[in-house]
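Because showing beats explaining, we think one record worth quoting, sequence and backbone structure tokens together, and here it is:
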Amino acid sequence: MMRLVASSAAAHSGLVKHITKTTSLSCFPSFLVGIPARSLCSTVPMIKERQLQIGPNSVHFVEAGHGDRGIILLPGALGTAWTDFKPQIEGLPALLPHHRVIAWDPPGYGKSRPPEKEFTTDFFERDAAAAGELMQKLGFQRYSIVGWSDGGITGLVLAANQPDRVEKLVVWGSNSYISDTEVKIYEDIRDVRKWSARMREPMELVYGVDHFPKLWSAWVDGLVRIYHERKGDICSGKLKHIKAPTLVVHGAKDPMIIPDHVPYLLNNISNTDLHVFPDGKHNIHLRYANEFNTIVAKFLQG
């Protein structure tokens, strides 16, 4: 079953080891999310940052909220809890008082290093297994997933591999296979020197000016390797195993994925809703943070 919902934001256009640290969100500069700076003086949840050993990695994650239900936020390529999800860490606990929000740095990213990330053809499967283990170690036998871009792919894999543990799934900017068009997109963005400073700076702050280009190029190599060695299939065959009600959120002007992925997900996951931001691009959860949070919270509570 699939239901289409139009974004109200576009209605005006006529379209539809165990280390614990507690701190206030105001300690984190707003430029880390790659969007214009704004005041963080409003009331925000108290945040705990911790690390747990997951396989060979000491995995860093952020906790917000005090509920007994769990949500894990899965960031995009090379992304971290803070670079990718600060508006959600800040906003979702108030909207979901019965949930605890977990946002992680995937193994090999951000503060979940060393070791460095290895972009093997199964790195999404390995990330999915690590995310599932993290949530179990935190005491969540069942939980919901909110995943962006690569994190959405990880979420699809996790929901398919452990269908009885995932309550609900939200993905955007994500794909279950790589097309030849997308290989060209990846190659076109390989050289980070061609990026704007606004796009580079958050990643340079995390990885360093010299190391970030190398890690990004390794990510591109990993996806190209999946394209050649697995014929582009990331997890398409797994989608039928997903039991969780799934919300696909889509920015209609997303330059990172071809439009075909949206109907493909809707047609291959049994219980899906679709919410479209007609003017949205890849980072709709940052550009339309308040509305995005409201949409996600309503879906998770429904």
Notes: The two ends are 16 Å apart (CA to CA).
